[in-house]
């Protein structure tokens, strides 16, 4: 197997969690603002092999993303930019406004959802 996890294998989730913990830890310990939720700063949500990075600026998001990409590469994992996307928005008097936020994975742009 060259990519992904073995679907249906009960050990896949365990091995995935063991391998992703050292990838996520440096990003979670970074000094970025994140999103405050009940007094706790959220910077990353993860479910299986999906990540949601959260921050208040494009620059901070790119720093978090670069940290994940760098740390993942150290243990032989890599992100697939065509399967990645960004969604950014802000609130104004007119409601929520979706913005395009150009983010890169190893120099490759990822798509922005609108």
From TrEMBL:
Q: Name the GO terms of the biological process aspect.
A: DNA biosynthetic process
Question: Ranges for the Reverse transcriptase domain?
Answer: 1-110
Classification via InterPro entries? DNA/RNA_pol_sf, RT_dom
Q: Tell me what this protein is called.
A: Reverse transcriptase domain-containing protein
Provide the taxonomic classification.
Eukaryota, Metazoa, Ecdysozoa, Arthropoda, Chelicerata
